[in-house]
Amino acid sequence: MLLMEAAGRFCCSGGECLPRVAVEPERKAKGARTRESILRVAVDLASVEGLEGLTIGRLAEELEMSKSGLFAHFGSKEELQLATVEMARQIFVDRIIRPALALPEGTPRLIGLCQGWLDHVAGGVFKGGCFFTAASFEFDSRSGPVRDAIATAMRTWLDVLTRAIEGAKKARHIKAAIDARKFAFEIYSLAMGANWALQLLDDKGAMGKARQNILERIRSVATPSCPAIKIAR
């Protein structure tokens, strides 16, 4: 009995016994890294082929892994889709929102969010352009947990834009009469349309036009105390 208890406290490898507490965290960390690597490929794949086309089998083929290996991380297609949406959200936050929040409150932060989003799409982070734009079009008429996760992410993004606009009003960089939520919707629509034009119409100038339109729209409501807004022609 004592021997069994002692064995339970240790994990032996290569003839050397190590405390389990020293092995388990490393094993979990390795599993988390593997899962993240898988999901980054899944996001890229889904941006091109759609979330509905993202299956355990298709992802296994892309990764040259066994289906059983993927099932160890995701028990079902829906679980894989939800994890992919969450990974896309994390990438969006890391690449767009977090850097912009480091900028001063006001139009610098608002423009940083807009520029970051457009750069994210134009830079080809994912093969299929903006993951959430594609996923929104794919799931807008469906119901279920995947659609809900996409909708939640997009509502959150609109809220971030709205708060940035409110911050610009508070900093007296844009007119106090501006309806922040309506203005956020305008910016959101311009960027979504640009992604559509780039992906469907192969309009290479779409991002540049959206960038110019957004900056002109912000400048049109700017106050005299607003920092200079440079618009490339």
Question: Which helices and strands, and how do they pair?
Answer:
Elements: H1 2-8, E1 10-13, E2 16-19, H2 20-49, H3 56-63, H4 67-71, H5 77-101, H6 107-122, H7 131-139, H8 145-170, H9 180-200, H10 206-220
Antiparallel strand pairs: 1-2
Helix pairs in contact: 2-5, 2-7, 5-6, 5-8, 6-8, 6-10, 7-8, 8-9, 9-10
* Number of distinct beta strands: 2
Gyration radius over CA: 23 Å
Q: CATH H-level name of the domain at 78-220... which superfamily?
A: Tetracycline Repressor, domain 2
**Oligomeric nature of the chains:** single chain
SS-based class: mainly alpha
Describe what this molecule looks like in 3D.
- The chain is mostly helical and 233 residues long.
- It has a domain at 78-220: Tetracycline Repressor, domain 2, CATH 1.10.357.
- It has ten helices and two strands.
- A two-stranded antiparallel ribbon has the order 1-2.
- A hairpin with a 2-residue loop joins strand 1 (10-13) and strand 2 (16-19).
- Helix 7 packs across helix 8.
- The chain is elongated.
- The chain starts with a helix and ends in a 13-residue tail after the last helix.
- Mean pLDDT is 85; it is low at 1-11.
In short:
With 233 residues, the chain is mainly α. It is built from ten helices and two strands; from the N terminus they run αββααααααααα. The chain has a domain of 143 residues: Tetracycline Repressor, domain 2.
Keywords:
233 residues; mainly alpha; Tetracycline Repressor, domain 2; two-stranded antiparallel sheet; 10 helices; disordered N terminus
